[in-house]
From TrEMBL, chain A:
Molecular function per GO: FMN binding; oxidoreductase activity
Source organism: Paraliobacillus ryukyuensis
InterPro entries registered for this protein in UniProt: Flavoprotein-like_sf, FMN_Rdtase-like_dom, NAD(P)H-dep_reductase
Protein name per the record: NAD(P)H-dependent FMN reductase
Domain NADPH-dependent FMN reductase-like, chain residue ranges per copy: 1-146
PANTHER family: CHROMATE REDUCTASE, NAD(P)H-DEPENDENT FMN REDUCTASE LOT6
Protein family membership: Belongs to the azoreductase type 2 family.
Xref: SUPFAM superfamilies: Flavoproteins (SSF52218)
Pfam families: FMN_red (PF03358), PAS_10 (PF13596)
Cellular component terms per the entry's GO annotation: cytosol
Region listing for Disordered, in residue ranges: 375-395
TrEMBL record, chain B:
Gene3D superfamilies recorded: 3.40.50.360
PANTHER family per record: CHROMATE REDUCTASE, NAD(P)H-DEPENDENT FMN REDUCTASE LOT6
Pfam family, one: FMN_red
Gene Ontology molecular function, alphabetical: FMN binding; oxidoreductase activity
Species the sequence originates in: Paraliobacillus ryukyuensis
Span of domain NADPH-dependent FMN reductase-like: 5-147
UniProt-recorded name of the protein: NAD(P)H-dependent FMN reductase
InterPro entries: Flavoprotein-like_sf, FMN_Rdtase-like_dom, NAD(P)H-dep_reductase
Length: 395, 202
């Protein structure tokens, strides 16, 4: 986590500055702290807007980029210093970086009250609508009699104080996670997927019934598709169509290609449906994806494509445990993209990981520990992308 | 006749609080003289170690010292007193103590409906700290809400009821000033207490 620590004093010497530097080094395992000074920020003036000046923009950006803010405030005249108030006024006038930001208040003062009144005021100010910070409730850290509090190495002397401060800061990190989850912008729903493949793309072969059993033959005729010993130039190499077929057939996995129009265009046909990990039949090729899946799993199919098309995930993996304990079959939905990063469809490869893991264990002499939990590890489980919902032959 | 300082609680060029003080100056000219004092040219307080005060701070302090009372009119920024007024009060209690035992009347104007109530409470709190220790008129509050719409072209308060409320408060303030100025016995020692009070020595 990344926090900003604001030194609430613009004076040359400040115990509150010392306190923040102590926090920064002592608790660096809990969070990263960037300490910002306010002494270059001019007096707020409504009729001389300096929002765009460098020092104000600098602190604005630091706060916007941080997960949370710690303010260390002195106490002057029973309230916060005017210099700190001035900063808060700039940051609530035409810009509002504190909006929804988790804030923790600490304070040091010469007196034994330890800036209690200033902290109380600061809470009220941070709660004003123009500021709208989210201040951690309770958990005051007041450092009174500050002149005696530090040793010559600028470390807090009292072990209990150090322990208490650590516990408050730890609570703050939890508070920050909580608030940032609450304040996270609501996600826009991703656009619907057209599983009927009605939005033809450049490569869609027009005027052939996608549902036809002999779609491959009809479509091949339509575009004069090459085959057999004809050479095809690839990146990088030259193979005949037969060689490409041999090559793909030898892949130790079931490969499927669906384009960005959600049309099923290809699979490496080597086995009949009954012998496959996920059954496909030759007549299925050309189908829109809606025809490749049972009705009940269309929701998950759409979810997977949305993840890949939007780039939220590059790959979705689902373990399908229905093959018994001797296999660990995983459906891998891998987004395909062109050189510009445009979504070009799904490379679905279905693979039994078990032989790979066994080989690895044998080679290394390592052993697995613990029980095998059939349903575990399916990252997409929550979305119902579960056993059998992959592309399967219908009927 | 009493002589008062009307302290404008903002550094803004346009201010309805300044307007309010100007209205009071003119409206109560039979009852007291009010000298309007600005804070807008005071620098931001930065607790200089050598405790030297800007000349302007001393000037304002002298004026307050010599006045029979101070009327402070405060805007409300972020539910509190504006930084510019806070800064002025920081200076005016940094090794000098012009506010000790000084009768103070607080007024305030804001654009919204609450009329700076929270800023006024905040200001009372500040004026009550040991190095300011003003004598704030108790149980009184003058809140001017919707202040942008409150004045006519001649800078008169449009609302007659509000004007009467302000007049009554001002009369009370005159009495209050009288009473405070009779409580002079303790004044010398209060001043000393403030001067001896040092946060450094706590
Ligand atoms: C004008 C002025 C007013 C002060 N008022 C208070 C006060 O009301 N309460 C308090 O605890 N300390 C007060 N102090 C002393 C502070 O304890 C001290 O300046 C500050 O909180 C220590 O923090 P720092 O070293 O970061 O400045 C005041 C100091 C000055 C210069
Ligand atoms: C940074 C900033 C914060 C403000 N916060 C408040 C506020 O918390 N409450 C309120 O009533 N008005 C607020 N205002 C508007 C004030 O009502 C208005 O500026 C002021 O009180 C009117 O006084 P003036 O005309 O003397 O400047 C704010 C204005 C600024 C510039």
């Amino acid at each position: 986590m990344k926090f900003v620590g604001i030194v609430g004093s613009n004076a040359e010497k400040s115990y509150n500055r010392k306190l923040l530097h102590f926090i920064k080094t002592k608790y660096q395992d809990l969070f990263e702290l960037e300490i910002v000074e306010i002494k270059d920020i001019p007096m707020f003036n409504q009729s001389n807007d300096q929002t765009h000046s460098e020092p104000i923009q600098k602190i604005n950006k630091a706060i916007l980029d941080a997960d949370g803010v710690i303010i260390a405030t002195p106490e002057h005249n029973h309230t916060i210093p005017s210099g700190l108030k001035s900063v808060l006024e700039w940051l609530s006038f035409n810009i509002h970086p504190f909006d929804g930001k988790p804030v923790m208040i600490v304070g040091a003062s010469y007196f034994n009250q330890g800036s209690s009144r200033a902290q109380l005021h600061l809470r009220q100010i941070l709660d004003a609508p123009g500021v709208n910070a989210i201040v951690m409730p309770g958990n005051e850290f007041l450092l009174g009699k500050v002149k005696e509090a530090f040793d010559s190495n600028d470390q807090l002397k009292d072990a209990n104080t150090v322990k208490f401060l650590g516990s408050v800061l730890e609570k703050f990190t939890k508070f920050v996670s909580l608030v940032n989850r609450l304040e996270a912008p609501k996600e826009e729903p991703l656009p619907k997927e057209d599983l009927h493949a009605t939005n033809a793309i450049d490569t869609t072969i027009a005027d052939v019934d996608m549902a036809a059993e002999d779609w491959v033959e009809q479509a091949a005729k339509k575009v004069n598709a090459v085959e057999g010993n004809t050479y095809v130039k690839l990146n990088r190499g030259i193979l005949t169509v037969d060689q490409i077929n041999t090559f793909l057939a030898s892949m130790p996995m079931e490969l499927t290609f669906a384009d960005e129009n959600n049309q099923f265009l290809y699979y490496n046909y080597t086995k009949e449906a009954a012998d496959m990990l996920a059954d496909r039949v030759p007549g299925q090729v050309g189908n829109p994806l809606v025809l490749c899946h049972p009705e009940r799993s269309l929701g998950s199919v759409e979810w997977v494509i949305q993840q890949l098309r939007s780039g939220k995930q590059d790959a979705v993996r689902v373990n399908v445990p229905t093959h018994g304990p001797d296999k660990f079959v995983v459906h891998n939905y891998q987004a395909m993209r062109d050189e510009e990063g445009n979504y070009k469809g799904i490379n679905e490869y279905i693979l039994d990981f078990k032989p790979i893991v066994d080989w690895y264990l044998k080679q290394t002499g390592l052993k697995l520990e613990g029980e095998i939990d059939a349903g575990s590890g399916a990252s997409a489980k929550d979305h119902g992308v579960d056993a059998g919902s992959g592309a399967t032959a219908k009927g | 006749m009493n002589h008062f300082i009307g302290l404008v609680g903002t550094n803004s060029d346009k201010s309805t609080n300044r307007q309010l003080l100007q209205f009071m100056k003119q409206h109560f000219s039979e009852k007291a003289t009010i000298e309007i004092v600005e804070i807008k040219d005071l620098p931001l307080f930065n607790k200089p170690e050598d405790k030297t005060l800007p000349p302007l701070v001393k000037e304002v302090a002298d004026k307050i010292e010599q006045a029979d009372g101070v009327i402070i009119s405060t805007p409300e920024y972020d539910h509190a007193v504006p930084a510019s007024l806070m800064s002025a009060l920081n200076w005016l209690s940094y090794g000098i103590y012009p506010f000790v035992d000084k009768p103070v009347m607080i007024t305030g104007a804001s654009y919204g409906t609450l009329g700076s109530s929270r800023a006024q409470a905040h200001l009372r709190h500040m004026l009550d700290s040991p190095e300011l220790k003003a004598r704030i008129m108790p149980s009184s509050e003058f809140l001017l809400n919707h202040s942008l719409q409150s004045f006519d072209e001649e800078n008169n308060l449009k609302d007659l009821e509000k004007t009467e409320e302000l007049s009554n408060l001002f009369d009370d303030f005159l009495v209050f000033v009288n009473i405070v100025n009779q409580l002079v016995h303790a004044h010398g020692s209060n001043k000393k207490a403030a001067a001896n009070f040092s946060w450094e020595n706590q």
